[in-house]
Amino acid sequence: MKTILRNLFYTLKRFQTASVLNLMGLSAAFAAFVLLMMKVSYERDFDTCYPHTDRLVMLNLAQPQEENYVSTLPRGPIDYLIQQVPGIEYGTIYSPAWQKQAFYTDPKNPQYFYEEPWAVYPDFGKIIGLKFVEGSDQEMNRPESVIVSESYARKLFPNGDALGSYLYTDTPDWRNPEATKFRICGIFEDLPENCQFKNDLFVPMGKLQENDWGSQNFFAFFLLKPGVSVEEINQQIAATEANKRLFTGDQGTQKLYVLPIQKLYYDMHSPYYFKTGSCSTMTLLVSIGFLIILIACINLINFSTALAPVRMRSINTQKVLGSTNGELRRALVAESVSIVLIGWLLSLGIIAALIRLNVLSFMGFTPSLLVYWKYVLYTGVIALLTGIVAGLYPSWYMTSFPPAIVLKGNYALSGKGKRLRTVLIGFQYIVSFALIVTAAFIFLQNRFMRNHELGIDKD
């Protein structure tokens, strides 16, 4: 171990330029890779946080040729299906406010803040598995009730007296016009960022548009009974003949059906309110991440091979003094692993700085070394393997010649050695140029969408 550390410090000190370039490349590559893997984790685990994810479904209404589009629903069929379909354990309306509403906490000194509360049924908490840290949702059958997230409660009431306090409004909610103030009856544990219900305020749904089978203003979610499949529920919905009672769109062609909650994110198109993603995008991100690591690995091999001529004398001297090829190769691989792990540690510092500077908002989620700690550790394992792979060829190459090679020139300047380096560098350039061109096209497309004339005054 002492010999490995001595060789490592000697290499870092003796070949400062190469070492700095190596560490810069490795740290940048691992920083990009860790961030990409965080994004992949965000995408892959979307809507998996619920206790009964496999039983949570969304109700949708669409034409046969538009089943991949999320549509708003009338309230009538939502209530009807909750009552009539035997496979539904709990059901809830999920009603957007459509615009921000003004609230305040002190009626004597109103300090307004603006939010978009969602109106739901009392069973909403049971359906998505809300965990209450204070209070409960037992009073959500009363019009003047509200449940709030834990972080939002701390924000509104820093002294910790949120439970039982009131939120006041001067403009009654159109979905619950009889309520002009809302008492906080429950504070629930914050939901993760990668879920559809990442909201702070939920209020009870009033009697608006009850038995209305035509006005489309709502969404709905059901929790199925254990053992009941999506196919069975859709058959039960069809058996109720609710489709025939609809007064929406082209009657006779639209149909009500449910879809698994995870299908909403990956397979549906939603113009508003719901988040959507793509499995192909996730696959692309993983591919780009590993290409970046591969480039860094090749870069390390090239640097190590390029240093071979000037390190050959030291290696052959150690041979003369009795070191075996196996010992020297293990030391050189350990040296490569150490450099890669240092680069990995530096990458974590880079990520922490970027998070602190709040410059990663363009990624569409909130990166965190703590939240995504598993992927940080996985990347550390990948860094270890990268160091081993990147160190195998240089260590074999630099120890494969007899000591007399010092007097006869070196392989690095031979035709075969040049061809190997040309192939590795050529691969680096091809992948790098492909990524740069792709990034340039994404930038141009984004700029086009932001600056294109829409025919209206955007201000």
Description:
This protein is an alpha+beta fold and 459 residues long. It has two domains: 220 residues, no CATH class; 215 residues, no CATH class. Helix content is 47%, strand content 13%. The chain has twelve helices and twelve strands. Strands 1, 2, 5, 6, 7, 8, 9, 10, 11 and 12 form a ten-stranded mixed beta sheet that branches. Helix 2 packs antiparallel against helix 8 and helix 8 packs antiparallel against helix 12. The longest helix is centred in the C-terminal third of the chain and has 37 residues. It is elongated.
Question: Which short descriptors sum up this protein?
Answer:
alpha+beta; 12 strands; two-stranded antiparallel sheet; single chain; 10-stranded mixed β-sheet
Give the topology, please:
Elements: H1 2-14, H2 16-44, E1 56-62, H3 75-84, E2 88-95, E3 101-103, E4 113-115, E5 118-120, H4 124-128, E6 132-135, E7 145-149, H5 150-156, E8 166-168, E9 181-188, E10 201-204, E11 219-224, H6 230-239, E12 255-260, H7 261-267, H8 279-306, H9 308-320, H10 325-356, H11 373-398, H12 415-451
Parallel strand pairs: 5-10, 7-9
Antiparallel strand pairs: 1-11, 1-12, 2-5, 2-11, 3-4, 6-9, 7-10, 8-9
How many domains is the backbone divided into?
2
Number of strands: 12
Question: What helical percentage do the residues reach?
Answer: 40-55%
Unreliable stretches covering 5 or more consecutive residues: none
Arithmetic mean pLDDT: 83
State which percent range the strand residues make up.
5-15%
Order of helices and strands: HHEHEEEEHEEHEEEEHEHHHHHH
Largest sheet: 10 strands, mixed
Shape: elongated
- Name the quaternary structure: single chain
Structural class: alpha+beta
The CA-CA distance between the termini, in Å, is 65 Å
Please tally the helical runs, counting DSSP H or I stretches of 4 or more residues: 12
| Rg over CA atoms | 30 Å
